[in-house]
């Protein structure tokens, strides 16, 4: 029996001292292995993201995200507007768990899609906004939405800060 889900979108933004073309390279092919993950992730069994590799670009293309637990997200690219917008579906492989019990591909909590928006400012830097779409089983939303949203906000901040550090090197 499948249960209805409540979908949510959260977003975070960061300014990066680099041109949109540089930032674009760091959001389409991500390297995170060199950064320590937050203690909260380790306590809650949130797998450390290692890298994401672009396989084919453009809408309909794909990217694979690799995690320290040996699992992957096979991401399908939905929108590809170089230096401006990049969106994808997460598609976690079966058995990808977070928080010890949450099966991301078919469970009560699901990661649905991600989007990056880039905007150059007058000083030549780039504002990078990340949107994350996720869902929680409707009957459990009042219990699960607050802690899941908190962890996702920490994850967004970690990811954006890591991208900033890479792009500004």
Give the topology.
Elements: E1 5-16, H1 20-28, E2 30-31, H2 39-43, E3 49-56, E4 62-67, E5 72-81, E6 85-89, E7 97-98, E8 102-103, E9 109-120, E10 126-137, H3 141-167
Antiparallel strand pairs: 1-10, 2-3, 3-4, 4-5, 5-6, 6-9, 7-8, 9-10
Structure report:
This is SRPBCC family protein. It comes from Hymenobacter aquaticus. The chain starts with a strand and ends with a helix. Helix 1 (20-28) crosses helix 3. The chain is built from 3 helices and 10 strands, in the order βαβαββββββββα. Helix content is 24%, strand content 42%. The chain has helices spanning 20-28, 39-43, 141-167, and strands spanning 5-16, 30-31, 49-56, 62-67, 72-81, 85-89, 97-98, 102-103, 109-120, 126-137. It is globular and about 45 Å long. Strands 1-10-9-6-5-4-3-2 form an 8-stranded antiparallel beta sheet. A two-stranded antiparallel ribbon has the order 7-8. The chain is of the alpha+beta class and 169 residues long. It has one domain (5-167): 2-Layer Sandwich (Alpha-D-Glucose-1,6-Bisphosphate, Chain A, domain 4). The longest helix has 27 residues, at 141-167.
């Amino acid at each position: 029996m499948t249960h209805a889900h409540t979908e949510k979108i959260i977003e975070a933004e960061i300014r990066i001292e680099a041109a949109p073309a540089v930032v674009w390279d760091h959001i389409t092919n991500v390297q995170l292995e060199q950064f320590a993950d937050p203690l909260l992730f380790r306590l809650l069994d949130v797998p450390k993201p290692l890298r994401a590799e672009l396989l084919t670009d453009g809408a309909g293309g794909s990217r694979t995200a690799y995690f320290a637990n040996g699992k992957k997200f096979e991401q399908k690219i939905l929108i590809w507007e170089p230096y401006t917008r990049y969106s994808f579906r997460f598609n976690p492989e079966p058995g990808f768990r977070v928080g010890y019990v949450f099966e991301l591909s078919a469970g009560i909590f699901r990661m649905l899609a991600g989007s990056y928006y880039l905007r150059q400012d007058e000083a030549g830097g780039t504002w990078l906004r990340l949107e994350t779409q996720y869902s929680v089983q409707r009957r459990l939303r009042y219990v699960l939405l607050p802690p899941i949203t908190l962890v996702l906000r920490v994850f967004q901040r970690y990811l954006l800060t890591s991208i900033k550090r890479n792009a500004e090197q």
